[in-house]
């Protein structure tokens, strides 16, 4: 019997599922904000001629059409991870070619955050390629992090980042800034995983792990509880 128990424990320890790690947070749970263009909306909410009926946590961020583009306004998220290659996703509503992007930066000082596509700043596009614009929708869609000129150059032309490139993050604390670019773009959640194959459009990230405060529990933490 002891041998069988030992084999079971070893099987659990090396199981590939427990090797993957995940983090996520609600977009409205930012740690800091600059400017007034990013607003927090509670569902159901009428925006730009349609209704956002649901959102994770019953809230989301963005700006209605007419607010104006760019501006340097931003929200900041602080998070901690284990050292690894991390694939970031955002749950977004981006209904038109004029409402489908924001700026982003990783581990950048507040004073360096601008609404420009240079320096540490990148553009995160949603259905930017003309061939993909038939997919514009007022429903929530998960988009893999991309950029026009930075570490994921060219991936803005794909639907969800068909040739995924991760962020290589050291162990410890990090920051993600989202800076305003186009009004009419809305963001519900941020999700990141070390699993290159995981697609939150196919599997709800909330079913992958149980939430713990702002970040989800990692598979490693779940394993240690057995």
Describe the 3D structure.
There is one protein chain. The chain has one domain (20-218): Jelly Rolls. With 226 residues, the chain is mainly beta. It has 3 helices and 16 strands. The strands form 4 sheets. Strands 1, 3, 6, 8, 11, 12 and 14 form a 7-stranded antiparallel beta sheet that branches. It has a 5-stranded antiparallel beta sheet with strand order 2-7-13-9-10, with no helix packed on it. The chain has a two-stranded antiparallel sheet with strand order 4-5. The chain is globular, with a radius of gyration of 19 Å.
What is the secondary structure topology, with strand pairs?
Layout: H1 2-13, E1 22-26, E2 32-34, E3 39-42, E4 45-47, E5 50-52, E6 59-62, E7 74-81, E8 84-93, E9 101-106, E10 122-125, E11 141-144, E12 167-169, E13 172-179, E14 186-193, H2 205-208, E15 211-212, E16 215-216, H3 219-224
Q: Between the first and last Cα atoms, what is the distance in angstroms?
A: 18 Å
Per the principal axes of the C-alpha atoms, what is the gross shape? globular
One letter per element, helices H and strands E, the order comes to HEEEEEEEEEEEEEEHEEH
In DSSP terms (H or I, runs of 4 or more residues), the helix count works out at 3
CATH superfamily: Galactose-binding domain-like
Percent strand: 25-35%
């Amino acid at each position: 019997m002891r041998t069988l128990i030992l084999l079971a424990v070893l099987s659990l320890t090396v199981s590939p599922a427990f090797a993957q790690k995940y983090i996520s947070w609600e977009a409205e749970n930012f740690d800091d904000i600059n400017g007034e263009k990013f607003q927090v909306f509670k569902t159901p909410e009428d925006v730009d001629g349609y209704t956002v009926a649901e959102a994770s946590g019953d809230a989301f961020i963005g700006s209605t059409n007419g607010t104006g583009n760019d501006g340097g306004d931003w929200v900041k998220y602080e998070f901690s991870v284990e050292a690894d290659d991390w694939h970031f996703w955002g749950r977004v509503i981006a209904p038109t070619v004029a409402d489908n992007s924001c700026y982003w930066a990783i581990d950048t000082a507040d004073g360096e955050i601008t609404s420009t596509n240079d320096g540490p700043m990148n553009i995160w596009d949603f259905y930017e390629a003309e061939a993909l614009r038939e997919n514009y929708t007022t429903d929530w869609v998960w988009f893999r992090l991309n950029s026009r000129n930075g570490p994921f150059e060219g991936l803005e032309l794909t639907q969800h980042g068909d040739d995924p490139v991760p962020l290589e993050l050291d162990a410890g604390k990090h920051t993600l800034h989202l800076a305003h670019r186009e009004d009419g773009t809305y963001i519900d959640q941020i999700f990141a995983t070390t699993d290159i194959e995981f697609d939150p459009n196919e599997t709800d990230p909330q079913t992958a792990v149980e939430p713990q405060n702002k970040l989800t529990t990692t598979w490693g933490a779940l394993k240690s509880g057995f």
